Amino acid sequence: MPVFKLCLKIINKNKMVMMVYILAFVMVSFIVRSFNKPSEGLTTYSDTKVSIAIISEEDTPLTKGIETALSRIAEVKSLEGYEDNLKETIQDALYFRALHMVITIPEGFTDAILAGEPMTIKAQSVPGSVESMQVNLLINQYLNLARLYVTADEAIGADALASAIASVMDQPAEVTIINPNPDAVQGDLMPFFFNYLAYSYMFVMILGVSSIMLVFNRKVIKWRNACGPMPSLNMSAQLLLAIAVFAVVVWLILVTLCLVFDSQNAFKTNTLYFMLNAAIFGISVLGLSFLLANLIKGKDASSAVANIITLSTCFLSGVFVPQAFLGEGVLKVASYFPTYWYVKANTQIAVLTRFSFASLKEILGIFLIELGFAAAFIIVSLAVGKRNQLRT
Amino acid sequence: MVVKVNQLVKRYGDLLALDHLSFEVAEGEIFGLLGPNGSGKTTAINCILSLLKYDKGDVSVFGKPMTPESNDLKRDIGIVMQEVAVFDELTVYENIDYFCGLYVPDKKARKLLVEEAIQFVGLEDFKKFYPKKLSGGLLRRLNIACGIAHKPKLIILDEPTVAVDPQSRNKILEGIVALNKQGATIIYTSHYMEEVEQICSRIMILDKGNIVATGTKDALKGMISLGEKITVETFDLTTAQVDAMRSLPNILEVIDQAGVLTIRSAKGKNNLENVLEALKREHISFGKIHSELPTLNDVFLEITGKELRD
Amino acid sequence: MFAHIFFYRIKSLLRQRSLVFWTLIFPIALATFFKISLGNVMQIDQFEPIDVAVVNNIAYPEFVETMKGLSEGEDRMFTLILGDEQMALNALKEGEVSGVIVPGEPPELIVVKTGIKQSILKNFLDQYAFNQSTISTLAAQYPESIPELMAAMSTSQNYIMETSVTDKPTDPSLVYFYALIAMACLYGSMYGIEEVNRVQANLTTLAARLNVSPVHKLKVFAAGLLAAIVIHYMGLLILLGYMQFGLGVNFGDQFGYVALIVLIGSILGISMGAVISALIKKGEGIKIAVVLLISMLGSFMAGMMIADIKYYIAQKMPILGFINPANLLSDALYALYYYDTHTRLYQNLAGMSAFALIFCTLTYLLIRGRKYASL
Predict the structure, then answer these.
(1) What's the topology of domain B3-221?
(2) How far, in Å, CA of B91 to CA of B93, rounded?
(3) What ipTM was reported for this prediction?
(4) Which of A91, A259, C83, C115 counts the highest number of beta carbons within 10 A?
(5) Range of lowest pLDDT (A195-199, A256-260, C339-343)
(6) Do residue C72 and residue C7 come from a single domain?
(7) Which candidate, A262, A205, A207, places its Cα nearest to that of A29?
């Protein structure tokens, strides 16, 4: 199988650049892993605690009450000792996310609340921070309750008000997190790694396959091969076999890395489906890179195309930014790429807790779509190959 | 002396690339550096140009010591490197103008020189071409034009004809002779002995960093014991006839094969005359008769015991 | 002479398509993808109804009614499934709903994981529970004020006034764009690689050819560097222009400073490439892979893909942030935008300049020799 062997040699020669991208995958995964420490058990509901600071220009039972209420959902940090350059300290703290929010309770606040007059608390927060929404909600809850008390009893004092609200808020809704299936994957790491895998997989495949095809599509080589005694079907078969072996090897490497990085979830049933999804995605990427390789003309172009195609599809399909956050228009465009479906399947696999046919139906449908992409890519690239052949 | 090399030693690790090399090139010469691949020709050139560090010895050009800072000397040197050294992103004209501009700051003067160089190498029709669009031979000509446009007094050409078609090769060789006639001293390296024989006024043969021989081509050929090779087209020779030829004086070897009698003679006079007489004496009828002097390859073969060609 | 080399270097560099691609087309394309995919991230204003299952407990008809009321119409808050506990839990396990609500005092929320939807559910239930218990307490104490209480409860007042940290409008997506600009600056290292390749005789024949000409190689290098900076900087200005006017990225009103940051960034990038090119003797591919990796990784750590990484590093490993050229660059841009004073900007600029200076000095030390041990 001379063609097959040659392909493997070409890939071997280009392995350095591909290793760089696999290495990038490892590094990113590593950073994300140390960043997202796996949660310790899931039985208690705890909001991620935001860091806030409260600057209170008056000290009353009511402001104390607010602080106590907030300390349940937030880590309240002190800004004492920074009064001299308060503004810069706050800017710095928010800049580095040491604080997510700083609230300032103005002088005369308690009196205004007790009198039922409108009054606001100043809040400075990290722009667009979801965490600070929680703080906002709680403060509004607290003060709206206060408003009810004041409505009923205009003479209620700050002390009575604070203790009344505290006792009400002492009984929040109970939250139970159930683990419906211990075999199901837990945490967000595994889906993240598998989503991110799309980036490295696609890049390495496009680069690898185009480095092979660049050799075989060189005019002189093509002519020489055409003059040789090997039937072109046999040659194509060997070529595809080599590419397939390549795809399997890259799949093995990347999947192994995913499993190693989230070993906690390595033996869950979901993980099997993640792996299957990655394999099916691999087939469509194989088709795509085969198609691109037939269109690419030079080495420079291959790395340019690999970067542009990989990054654009990954960005639009929700590899880096969750699909839920992407606009409808973007997703519509993205749905013309297999990456979109791959990520969509991953998202669904991540929440799978039962593996009956009914719950798998939609995911299997997506698998079929991905395979459809693979078939389409291969058919188109064969057509392109034929056209190129006729031209030369 | 235009170039003077004295006791030059260059090592690459354990490999001795130049072994106490000494030679001189006089003004007006076409000095040929001949040797097989890896014999140290390019290393010697790079040392002369102060591109390479060398372990011992010294080099002077135009009577002054050559250093990397000898810009006044470099101004009068033209170099055509073995590998084509041109910018892929610049056109033929721009490439020549760029390199010429490193020597000739004046724009007007340069324009004339560049045009002249283009004509000289015959690239008039390709001025706007990018190097990638040129054939191997044309590319080599561009490479030469880039080296000689500023009319240097000393031109060093390092294998300028490698992988060049015969037509371009002749054009290049003619050009070199023309440059020499215009007054330039030329150092020419090659492993093609025919080229060196054809144009060089003096030849130095290198092998493994050592000088095998130096001299004019006739002087080199005179160094060896071999005389001319005489081939006679004949047929149906008897063994006695062949033996008779063998018994001639000053004859080293006689081969009778496929109707061709090849006679190698040692150095000496009247070899051809002797053979002709013997042919007549032995009543051997013959068609063509042909006499060749020994080649530089023979010279190399006799001195080093191996072939010059790859 | 200098001008001669300079203009030819400009011509050469402009005609190298892969350079133009990496330093201009690629960042522009990336910026466009950012805009497309990040456009929505920051403002999740389209609220989608949350699927929720409520256990139909007849003991709490009001709660069920409230839930029903909130699950009607176009702008509904929930999409409701009512049923017994078994059915509700099944729906949760199948992933059909985000949570199961068991009415009670207080009500209970059952979920399989935490997330935004779950938080909204929890907040809603808290609010409901608090209001219920407040109203029942107050109604018992002050029966005469029940109508007023009901009226007060039906409205909700906002007690928070969000004020900006800076006088300028804030946009969290800026971090991404700044990291991208940082990356584009660092991609200038390709020019650095190219310029060193053009003068180091042991790297290319062209450079060897140049070394035998009567021009000092450092002069050629200086002219080449200047040409590289000019070209790269022009490209960066085009990128900035595209971001500002094409994509509507807001750089604040201090464009002059932005241009200065990017200029130093360009020099930083180019000198980084020069050092790498001078250090790694052979293999153009390896050199490019190394600079791509450094730029990509640096940009990643500066928050190009996940903005939080930047803050994590700033808090936990500030040194790492300071030795990351990409971070210095994007930080300089962000500091300019964010702070009223320029202290932090100057710190970053100083760091960048120090890097550029170190890189330039190293390059000089590495390439000043004009004789080579081997070619």
Answers:
(1) Rossmann fold (3.40.50)
(2) 5
(3) 0.82
(4) A91
(5) C339-343
(6) no
(7) A262
